[in-house]
C-alpha cells in the first residue's frame, strides 16, 4: 500500500467519497469549499484507491481539522481507516500541528476513541445524523 498526498481533490478521493458518503450513506452535500483548502490523502492498493481523508489548518481554532475517512467497502475491518488516519496525523505533526479536531458521526466515535481521540461536549445533529466533536493532542509538534 502507498499513500499519496494532494493539495487538491483528486478524482480518486472524489470517487471514494461519493460512493461511500453519498451513495451508501445518503449524504446530499458531500463536497464543499473545504476541499479547496485541504490536503487530501489517498491510500492505494496497487493502482486502486482504497481509502481517503482530508485535513486542513483551521486558523480560527488554531488547530488542524480532520475530515471523515472513507474506506472502500471491500477493505473495511482490515485496519485501513486507522492506517490512513495515522498517516494524516504524522503529516500534521511534521507540519508543527499539536491538536487535531473532528466532527465524528456518533456511530464512528468508538473508532476514533481507539485512536486516542477524546469526546468534547454533547452529541449534536448535523449533516443528516448525530455527530460529536472530538480532538486529539499530538506529541512533538509546535504549540
UniProtKB/TrEMBL annotation:
N-acetyltransferase domain: residues covered: 1-139
Keywords for this protein: Acyltransferase, Transferase
Signal peptide: none
Domain of life from the UniProt record: Bacteria
Molecular-function GO term, any one: N-acetyltransferase activity
PANTHER family noted in UniProt: GLUCOSAMINE 6-PHOSPHATE N-ACETYLTRANSFERASE
The protein's name in its UniProt record: Putative GNAT family N-acyltransferase
Organism: Kineothrix alysoides
